[in-house]
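Q: what sequence does this backbone want?
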């Protein structure tokens, strides 16, 4: 390969990974590819790419920087949107193809390095919102390192529900995003159950080597993934024994009226453990049945549909919802009586 072809190849790669880069930016990145040239030589190479190869717009000045023509590239903004969408498909909908593409794009995003305007490209919008601040970013890096090396962690955890700090330890297995933030699924060292630990609630964290490498990492990873798929959101069975207990119970059944039945029916495989059926009574309603060890997040989802959805079984859960709805009604009635 001639020296010029090697330079052009490097320039194309840099522009592909940095759409909108300027001549000065190109000159600054070429040494990373083992190439050192004057700005005049670089300008000639750019002219070659414009006129001979037609890979760049043939204009005297490109105010928005260099963007390859006829080759699709992702800007920083587009990359964050794509990573967000792929994360939802791969983690929350368990799509293996989306997971593979997400991994490849994340590696590419990391290789592209930081951007002067938007910072590290590897972060999506949700990551930037949840992992704001130096401490949380450092927590995330430590967790990833512990997962990669299969080491145990010791950390201080604080939740508003408990109201005090907890000293915990375990083997981190998976990092997933769910509604309110990023979670790390961890196998506890004491009871060996799998707990979701919200990253922004971890106050102090360090890797500990005294417990040795997690020799059962692959088995734990598969088991944790399976349990996640058997729950609803982060309210999943913490162990296989909890799952067996849930499977022995009658299913929770929700009924949706005909106005939203099409929405429910368009995703009959909404959950790997759920079952959607049309009600054969002429109403056009549909029912969704599922067995869960913890129904809290599922109930919140049902409530989001208002009067168009309701729990119809088991009876104990129906009574629980009746009581809660009565309390809500009384709370709103009290607001209406205010002057």
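A:
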């Amino acid at each position: 390969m001639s020296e010029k072809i090697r330079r052009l190849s490097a320039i194309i790669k840099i522009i592909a990974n940095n759409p909108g880069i300027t001549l000065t930016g190109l000159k600054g990145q070429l040494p990373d590819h083992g190439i050192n040239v004057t700005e005049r030589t670089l300008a000639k190479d750019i002219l070659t790419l414009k006129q001979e190869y037609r890979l760049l717009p043939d204009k005297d000045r490109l105010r928005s920087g260099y963007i390859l023509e006829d080759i699709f590239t992702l800007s920083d903004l587009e990359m964050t949107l794509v990573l967000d969408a792929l994360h939802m498909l791969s983690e929350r909908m368990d799509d293996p193809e989306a997971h593979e593409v997400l991994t490849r794009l994340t590696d590419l995003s990391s290789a592209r390095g930081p951007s002067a305007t938007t910072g590290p490209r590897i972060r999506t919008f949700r990551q930037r919102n949840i992992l704001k601040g130096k401490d949380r970013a450092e927590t995330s890096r430590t967790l990833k390192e512990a997962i990669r090396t299969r080491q145990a962690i010791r950390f201080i955890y604080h939740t508003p529900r408990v109201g005090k700090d907890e000293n915990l330890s375990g083997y981190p297995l998976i990092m997933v995003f769910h509604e309110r933030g990023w979670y790390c699924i961890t196998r506890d060292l004491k009871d060996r159950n799998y707990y979701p630990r919200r990253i922004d609630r971890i106050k102090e964290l360090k890797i500990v080597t005294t417990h040795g490498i997690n020799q059962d990492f692959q088995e734990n990873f598969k088991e944790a993934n399976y349990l996640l798929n058997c729950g609803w959101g982060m309210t999943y069975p913490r162990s296989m024994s909890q799952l067996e207990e849930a499977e022995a119970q009658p299913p929770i059944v929700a009924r949706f009226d005909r106005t939203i039945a099409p929405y429910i029916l368009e995703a009959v495989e909404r959950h790997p453990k759920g079952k959607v059926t049309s009600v054969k009574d002429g109403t056009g309603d549909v029912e969704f049945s599922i067995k869960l060890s913890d129904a809290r997040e599922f109930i919140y989802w049902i409530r989001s549909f208002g009067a168009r959805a309701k729990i119809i079984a088991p009876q104990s859960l129906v009574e629980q919802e009746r009581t809660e709805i009565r309390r809500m009604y009384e709370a709103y009635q009290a607001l209406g009586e205010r002057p």
